[in-house]
Amino acid sequence: MLAKVLTGAVVGLDGALVEVEVDIAPGGMPNFLVVGLPDAAVQEARERVRAAIRNSGLSFPMRRITVNLAPADLKKEGPSYDLPIAVGILIASGQVEAEPGGVLYLGELSLDGSLRHTPGIIALVALARERGLDTVYVPAIDAREATLLGGVRVMPVPTLGALVAHLRGEAPLAPAPEGEDLAAGDDERPGGDLADVKGQEHARRALEVAAAGAHNLLMAGPPGAGKTLLARALPSILPAMTRDECLEVTKIYSVAGQLPPERPVVRQRPFRAPHHTISHAGLVGGGRWPRPGEISLAHRGVLFLDELPEFGQPALDVLRQPLEDGHITISRAQGSVTFPAKVMLVGAMNPCPCVRKYHSAESRQPGTRDHRPAPGRQGAKRRRPAEGPPLPQPLAGARPASGGVPGAPRHHPGRDRGGGRCGQRLDGRAVGERRERPGGYPAGAPDRAPGGTALARVAGGCGRG
Ligand SMILES: Nc1ncnc2c1ncn2[C@@H]1O[C@H](COP(=O)(O)OP(=O)(O)O)[C@@H](O)[C@H]1O
Ligand SMILES: [Mg+2]
Description:
CATH superfamily of the largest domain: P-loop containing nucleotide triphosphate hydrolases
Helix content: 25-40%
Radius of gyration: 27 Å
Number of domains: 2
Strand content: 15-25%
Structural class: alpha/beta
Order of helices and strands: EEEHEHEEEHEHEHHEHHEHHEHEEEHHHE
Bound molecules: adenosine-5'-diphosphate, magnesium ion
Shape: elongated
CATH class of the largest domain: Alpha Beta
């Protein structure tokens, strides 16, 4: 007997409809074959499905079973085909009736028949909505993620046994309630708060300007000056994400398998700080099945490259085009996928020893590229790509706020901050500045402003302690 069940494959960030055809042929040696360009994880589905059906109190037919995943030219990866294959076998062997209407089944089975967290659920629910399907069966643990979009009935499935009882009409499952309100996000700000930064007035101002205009930013200063601290505080002064931005970012994290089921919505602007040993595929996305890279995981947020010169010229060149375009297209023989990549790029670097001249009164040529060769891994050769043209005069001339900083008052959230450059108050102002801009940016979208990168010289000897 033949059964057909619908499911979906994630291609890039989008879903593609996949039909699972199950044929159970009478006679012959018992066999279980999966065809239709399945990868290793889909092949292993056979063992999981067999055990899950048996352990759910159902019978696994000892016949010749052929499962075809159509269209056959689309590569199938991952374990999300377990549930549709199991349902197909149960329908084909006459143990349950097929549900009428357009129904999509998604989910990975564990051997005891329960359903596990599956990546890419939101992308596949979006597909079901696009194709006008009525119902999507998802693992119960992923129901919150599945209901974010709305517009399609989501049925949370705890176990294969519960689904069978539902399809037989013995114990109907309840549809998941409406999705949560994305605007009503928690106020928890991960990372630092600008209010925790002492002194560093000019660097904080640079951060404000960059946040208001969504400019990229390069910070240069001696080790321990607070560059990393400042960069981590940047998301705290960026405007909150809109509903659509939340969904966009959530989809990327879901497809990348980085969305924890207990927190199925990304509400805070992402802050990604990859180590400089990262591969190009890790940075901009790639792999045999193209996955989003750090630049896409930082979409609508901040990509922080600490020790920027250590990344090396090739890695920085790889970032060039996606930073310009706001997206990255990865091409493979089978086709190409596009991931969004609208980020604020923040770099931090230590100055070359010759940069000490900036801080001295006798410095006559601030920003000169005339380097003294520096020893060790931060040598002039590797630092050069990050330097670019001489620093603009006002910034290059900025002196460490020596006298004032050590005793600078520490800012605390909730207190008056004389100038208001603390996270909370600045938040409002940064939003305001960005929205007031003539011909401005879409609310809260860190689209690139013309004018390139701001440079901030982070003074050494800041007021720690
Ligand atoms: N202006 C500052 N206010 C408060 N703490 C600071 C400041 N500058 C540096 N620190 C502290 O000093 C340490 C080193 O700072 P870090 O940001 O890692 O420096 P860098 O990245 O420039 O080497 C951190 O623990 C940070 O909290
Ligand atoms: Mg640092």
